[in-house]
Amino acid sequence: MKGTHRRGTETQRRETLSKTIGLSRSHRLTQSLPLRSSRLPRCLRASAVNGFPSAFTLIELLITIAIIALLLSILTPTLRTTLAASRTAKCLSNQRQLAVAWSLYGNDFRDFAVPAAYWQTQFIGTGPVIYWFGADSPTASPTSGTLMPYLSTARAERSALECPEQPAGTYTPQTQNLKVSTTYGYNGYYLSPEMTPGWAGEISFRPWRKVSDIVAPSSLLVFADTLLPALNATTLPRSTALLDPPLLFSQSSGWQANSSPTTAFRHGLKQKSAAVARADTSAQAALTTPDLLKRDSKGRFLGTGSLSRAPDPGYVPDWEQWLR
User: Fold this and answer.
1) Phi, psi (deg, nearest 5) at residue 252
2) How many Å apart are CA 71 and CA 114, to the nearest integer?
3) Facing residues of 305 across strands?
4) C-alpha to C-alpha distance for 281 and 101, rounded to whole angstroms
5) Residues 171, 231: contact at Cβ < 8 Å?
6) How far is CA 193 from CA 81, 115, 128, 206, in A?
7) 97-154 pLDDT, tens per residue?
8) Residue 65: how many other CB atoms lie within 10 Å
9) Which of 23, 166, 216, 321 has the largest CB neighbor count within 10 A?
10) Strand 274-278 to strand 263-264: parallel, antiparallel, or no bridges (unpaired)?
11) End-to-end CA distance of the chain
């Protein structure tokens, strides 16, 4: 029995030793196999020491930065174009709202066009001037103005009265008491001559127009982007609520060139256009020729100009009849 027990014990020891040697060899074999992670990018390879990803090398970092810079250089012009187109679309929407409100006003006031302003004492007494977009008073309601009851917006920053390309803070209001006025001009020169401040003395003999009298509504400008250029490099441009024609009328000398046209060309990146609304309530971005853009003595574009050399067809379609 003792001999049998000893042989069994020796057999168990041999099996245990064999298993131990087998594990050791298996371990050494595993350690000697090559890592397959060499097929992965360097930044994703596992470290043989601690198992964490290794860091970027300097060359890889520079290549990554160069690729990002290249992508930005490709995408930036496209992004700028998209944002500019979005602002133009918003401006056209604003002006179409103004044109529709202008049409609604005529329905309520015997078809007469909106007056540019009430400033005569027989209308306002000692009160403030009432423009189509608001009363020129620090206490005026944001909804004051002859056209405002027909708009779904009040006078405020980024409202339908402001072009997105010329928001509050980028211009000086032409009014005396309003911090926010409008960056759109109304064609009162043709539509309400006697109610257009600044020009009424020369053109009040012309009739106050009715909407139904307009012969070519798809051509006549009612509203447009407007601006008065800055006086110098340290001042802001001024807003103006009047859309003036390229020629101005004088009863003594007839039609003369307008040295300060108010149509503003501020849309687009390369070729600038002016957003306009016409009497048929349509709105478009209108282009002009380079020679009709206003420039300073050094040839720098001042932001304003005219859409045509003569007052017709957009500004004053019957201008040739004024001399008769």
Assistant:
1) -90, -30
2) 51
3) 263, 293
4) 9
5) no
6) 39, 9, 20, 6
7) 999 999 999 999 999 999 999 999 999 999 999 999 999 998 888 889 999 999 998 8
8) 10
9) 166
10) unpaired
11) 147
Q: Which amino acid is at 179?
A: K
In terms of pTM, does the model score above 0.85? no
For 245-274, give the DSSP string: -SEEEETTTEEEE-SS--EE--BSSSS-BE
CB under 8 Å to 292, separation ≥6 — which residues? 246, 305, 306, 307, 308, 309
- In whole angstroms, give the CA distance from residue 48 to residue 267: 60
Q: Per the structure block, which two tokens stand in for 134?
A: 């608001």
Closest by CA to 258, choosing from 224, 308, 209, is 308
CA distances from 132 to 86, 155, 227, 275 (A): 27, 11, 17, 19
89: three-class secondary structure by DSSP: helix
Q: Which residues pair with 256 in a beta bridge?
A: 248
Distance CA 324, CA 320 (A): 8
CB atoms within 10 A of CB 108: 10
Query: 313: cis peptide before it, omega within 30°?
Result: yes
Per DSSP, the three-state class of 234 is: coil
In what order do the strands lie in the sheet containing 117-118? 117-118, 130-131, 134-135
Q: Determine the Cα–Cα distance for residues 45 and 19; give it in Å rounded to an integer.
A: 34
Instruction: Give CA angle at 179 (176, 184), nearest 5°.
Output: 90
Chain-centre distance of CA 154, in angstroms? 20
The pLDDT score that the predictor gives to residue 27 is 47
Tokens of 63: 């290549």
Q: What is the token pair recorded at 44? A: 């994703």
Q: Write down how long the chain is.
A: 324
At 66-108, the pLDDT tens digits run 889 888 878 777 788 888 999 999 999 999 999 999 999 999 9
Using only C-alpha atoms, the chain has a radius of gyration, in whole angstroms, of 38
Beta-carbon neighbour count of residue 64 at 10 Å?
12
Q: In terms of Cα–Cα distance, which of 160, 126, 308, 138 is closest to 221?
A: 308
